[in-house]
Amino acid sequence: MKGIVLAGGSGTRLRPSTVSVSKQLIPVYNKPMIYYPLSVLMLAGIREILMITTPHDAPMFQRLLGDGSWLGLEITYAEQAEPNGLAEAFIIGADHIGDDSSALILGDNIFHGPLFSSVLRDNARDVDGCVLFGYPVKDPHRYGVGVTDAEDRLIDLEEKPEHPRSNRAITGLYFYDNDVVDIAARIEPSARGELEITDVNREYLAKGKARLVDLGRGFSWLDTGTHDALLQAGQYVQVMEERQGIRIACLEEVALRMGFIGVDDCHRLGSALSGTDYGRYIMKFAEEFALEEQR
User: Fold this and answer.
1) How many whole angstroms separate alpha carbon 1 and alpha carbon 215?
2) Do 275 and 257 have their domain in common?
3) 273 and 205 within one domain
4) What pLDDT is stored for residue 63 in this prediction?
5) How far apart are the C-alpha atoms of 220 and 114, rounded to whole Å?
6) How confident is the model at residue 18 (pLDDT cuts 50, 70, 90)?
C-alpha cells in the first residue's frame, strides 16, 4: 500500500497565522502538525509516502522531512497548485500509486487510540474497494456521515445532512484499492468546482465495495482547522503525554517500533535533539527498547 498525505490548501480559517507558513507545519503542542498524520501511515506499515503540498510550502516540508530515509521511509513530493478537491490527490499521485492500493490522510487530522496500529494494518491488508473510518460526533450535521443498517453495513453517505440519520462522521483517513485512480479521473467537479472525495466513496458504495470501520470508545479524532480546534488538540496532546509519560506521533519512536530503523539509528536521532525533552525521550525510549529486546 502506498500512502498520500494531502497537506495543501491555504489555511484561510487560521489566518493570520498561516499567511507565511503552512497550516500543517504549525505546532500542535510540541511537534509540527504534519507529524500526526504521517505517524498514522507509518503505523499502518506504509513506507512509501507522497506529500502533496502547495508550491509555496513545498520547500518547507522538504526541509523538515527530507526524503524520509532518516525514518526508514521513502518520501516524495508533489504540488497541488489550487485546492481542487481531495479526490485530486489520486490524479496527482497516480504514478506514485502505480498498481498498488493507497491510503489517503488529510494533513490536519489527528488520530489517537489503543491498538490503533493493529486496526490500521488489519484494514490495509488486501483492500477490495474502499475502507472509511467513522467517528461518533455530537454535531453530525457539520460533517459527511456514514449510515449503516442493522448488520452495521454501510448503506449511505450523507454530506452535511440537515437531519442526520447517523452520528458517525467520516474522518480524513481513507483506504482504497487501485480502482480509485480511474474513479478519481472520471468524476465531475461539484457545484463548488472541486473533485469531491464523497463522490469517489459513493461510486464504491454503489458497487457494494465500501465499508465503514467504527472508531468508537477509547479513540480520539481531532480536526485542527480552526483556532479553537487547534488549541483543543494541543491541550489534548499535552494532557495525554504528561499523564502517561508517552509521546503521541513521535516519528522516531514509531519508526523503531515498526522496524523501519534500528535502535542505534533511533538513539542517534534523539541525541541530535538532546537539548530538548523530545530528544531525551527518544534516547530513553531507544535504550529501554534495546533492553527489552535483550530479554
Assistant:
1) 21
2) no
3) no
4) 96
5) 10
6) low
The H-or-E segment that residue 52 falls in is strand 48-53
Over residues 113-150, the pLDDT tens digits come to 988 999 999 999 989 999 999 999 888 888 889 998 88
Question: What's at 44, amino acid-wise?
Answer: A
Under DSSP, is residue 221 helix (H, G, I), strand (E, B) or coil?
A: strand
Nearest to 224 by CA among 212, 236, 213: 236
Q: Given a cut of 90, is residue 211 above it in pLDDT?
A: yes
DSSP string, 136-193: E-S-GGGSEEEEE-TT--EEEEEES-SS-S--EEEEEEEEE-TTHHHHHHHPPP-TTS
Residues 30 and 107 in one domain: yes
Tell me, yes or no, if the pTM score tops 0.85.
yes
Residue 243 lies in a domain: yes
Q: How many domains does the chain have?
A: 2
> Cell 457539520 appears where?
142
Within 13 A of 145's CA, how many CA atoms are on the CB side?
20
Query: Can you give the length of the chain in residues?
Result: 295
Question: What does the pLDDT look like over 258-279, one tens digit per residue?
Answer: 999 999 999 999 999 999 999 9
Asked if residues 212 and 175 have their Cβ atoms less than 8 Å apart, the reply is no
Residues 248, 193: Cα–Cα separation, whole Å: 36
